Amino acid sequence: MPELPEVETVKGVVNPQITGRTILSVTVNHPQVIAAPEMEEFCRKLNGQQITGMQRRGKFLTILTENCRVTLHLRMTGSLLVTPVDYKMAKHTHVIMRLDNGMEIRFIDSRRFGRFWLLDADEEDTITGIRKLGPEPFDDVLTARYLQEKFAGKKKAVKECLLDQSIIAGIGNIYADEILFRAGIHPQSQAGSLSLEELAKLAEVVPQTLSYYIEKNQISPEDYLAGGGWDYRNTPYLRIYGHGGEPCPACGMILEKKVIGGRGSVFCPGCQKRGN
DNA sequence: CCCTGCCTGCTG
DNA sequence: CAGCAGGCAGGG
User: Is residue A106 flagged as an active site residue?
Assistant: First the structure.
C-alpha cells in the first residue's frame, strides 16, 4: 500500500511522538514479521533503548535508537500507530513497543507482508531491499541523462522501470500511473525508446508529483490515529488511479484500465500516446 | 527474464 | 465464490 508520500506521512506523524522516548518492552505476536534477527534477540536488544529519531529511505522507515536501527517496510497493508497503552487493540497487531510515557508503538498488518529488521547502530546494512535502492526522487542526480543511462536498451515498459526500486526509490503502482499521466507518456512505452525530451519531462514530474502528494497527505496525529494510520491518503487528489472508465480530467477521453507488468494500470489514451 | 509465494479482506 | 489488491524476495 504505502508508497513514498504515505511513508513520509507516517514518519511525520510518528517521529515527533516517539523521539526521546525509551522503549520499556517489546512484544511480537507473530514472529515471522521479524525478518532478522530472531524474535528473542530483537526484543532483548531494544529493551531500554532510547529513541533518537526516525528516517525514511524509499518506502523503508528506520527508527534510530542509541545502539540500534530498526528498519521496517509496510508493504501492502502495514500501518504504524502510536497509541495509549489502553487503546483498543486492532486485529492483526503484530508488534508492540511499550514506551516510557504510557504510549505504545504498534504495527498492524492484515496481510502480514510487512517486515522488521534490527541492526546495530554502526552495523553495515545487510537488508537487500535497502542496499539495492536507487536515488531518492528528490536527488539532483535524477536527470534525463540519468534515466537515459538506466533505461538504455530496456525493452520493458517504462512503468515497470518506474516501479524498479533500484532505478528510483519509493515509487509504487499508484504514483507510477499519476507520474506517467503528468508526463504524457504511455505506461507501455519501451523505456529504452523514450526521447531525451520525454525523459526530461519524466525527471521533472517525478519529484513534482511526489512532493505534491506529500503535501496533500498531511494530517494531524489525531486524525491519523482515528483512521488507523491508514486512512490518510488523499485519494480525492488522484487524477487517474482508480478512475478507469471515467473521463480524463484533461481531455475528456475515457481513461483506459489495463494490466501492465502484472499490475493494474490506468492511463489516458488521448494524453498518453504510445511512441513505439 | 518470468514466475511463484507470502496473507487477509473486499468486490463483483 | 473466484479474483483481485497500493510490494517484494527468491528461484528457475
Answer: no
Active site residue A66: no
Q: How far apart are CA A36 and CA A68, in angstroms?
A: 13
Q: Assess contact for A81 and A114: CB atoms under 8 A.
A: no
Cα–Cα dist A244/A251, whole Å: 14
Contacts of A219 (CB under 8 A, 6+ apart): A9, A13, A227, A232
| Pairing outcome for strands A23-28 and A78-84 | unpaired
Q: How far is the CA of A5 from the C1' of B1 (A)?
A: 30
Task: Please give the model's pTM, rounded to 2 decimal places.
Answer: 0.95
What's the CA–C1' distance between A215 and C5, in Å? 25
Give the other-Cβ count within 10 Å of A84's Cβ: 11
Residue A47: helix, strand or coil by DSSP?
coil
Convert the pLDDT of each residue in A42-92 to its tens digit.
999 999 999 999 999 999 999 999 999 999 999 999 999 999 999 999 999
pLDDT given at position A221:
94
Q: With H, G, I as helix, E, B as strand and everything else as coil, classify residue A26.
A: strand
- Three-state DSSP class for A25? strand
Burial class for A229, CB neighbours closer than 10 Å (0-12, 13-18, 19+): buried
- Residue A263 catalytic? yes
Gap between the Cα atoms of A109 and A255, Å rounded: 32
Q: Which of A57, A59, A150, A233 is catalytic?
A: A59
Q: Which chain C positions have some atom within 7 A of a protein CB?
A: 4-10
| DSSP character string of A61-95 | EEEEESSEEEEEE-TTTEEEEEEETTSPPPTTEEE
